[in-house]
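[Meeting: bench + compute handoff]

Bench side (C.D.) handed over the final construct sequence. Compute side (W.E.) agreed to return the predicted structure before the next meeting so the bench team could plan truncations. Sequence as handed over:
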Amino acid sequence: MTFKRIFAAAAVLLLWGTAYAQNDSTSRKVFGKESMASSRGTSTPEADTLDTGNPEVKILLFQNHTWRYIKNPDIVTRKKVFSEHWTTNVTNPYRISEESLPESFTLWIVDTLDSYCCPNKTTPSSKYGYRHGRQHTGIDLPYPTGTPVYAAFDGKVRCADYIGGYGNLLVLRHENGLETFYGHCSELKVKVGDWVHAGDVIALGGSTGRSSGPHLHFETRYKGLSFDPLWLIDFQTGTLRHRLFRLKRSWFSPGCRYYQVDDDEDVIAEGDEKDRVAAEEKARQEAAAREAAAQAAMRYHTVRSGDTLYAIARKYGTSVSTLCRLNGIKETTILQVGRRLRVK
């Protein structure tokens, strides 16, 4: 028996043992509660791929004599999750409300065959929730232009295109139904339909779209609904908080707050109706304040006999084209005495 066959047989036994342990309720619960450190694939060349007897699982051998289990993309991508609501040019192909979801449900984020990579070990520069009166559906991570962007989890590329305020956007759909978004990239390294592993370079950091400077906009969504990525990942340490993640319907509210309890198996959300209403009211007040400030900054001029657009523009330090744009008129429009023109 060759070394490869002996190695494959031993690995298969280990795989069966791992699967059995994970199916045991106690082991499953303990394993699911474990955090997971970030890891990235090395540049070590692959040496060979071995079968395990399970068509969904293979053994990947590297030339430095290391190995790991991998899922067979040809099998995994046949699952309905990679065909249903599969649209490549929109951010949310599901178009459902959170009320259609169960009150709570659990998802395996990383099982014994998956890997995980923190997009960037850093302190987020902008968090999830309301920002300037608008919902910010992800978090912003400091990311210099040209810096490699790594896939957080194994998945299939659903979207790789320039989309609105996201700029160059990459969306990965994962086997558990989650999707991760990577926005404002300067360059995309993969295309729609590609299968990527956690830690693969999928893009380069940038500042495309509606962006005030180089950073990575990172989102986590389920069925098109966003929730705070900090419930999954501690970006300051780079660790995945839980392998088995309990997601609650109330967490899809942008006003929902969370905290973590050491002796509880789940991340606990504190997002009751009072918090939601307060957050929405604050957003409305901020929007109203901005609108009032904008109104206060407006200035008007009442047309008098002999006034011309050129003379009015010179008086207020503006241009004729700006006056026309603000008032919906043309340069040839005849000014009526007594008409109010907006000049600022």
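W.E. noted at the follow-up: The chain has three domains: 3-76, 98-282, 298-342. C.D. will use this when planning the next construct.
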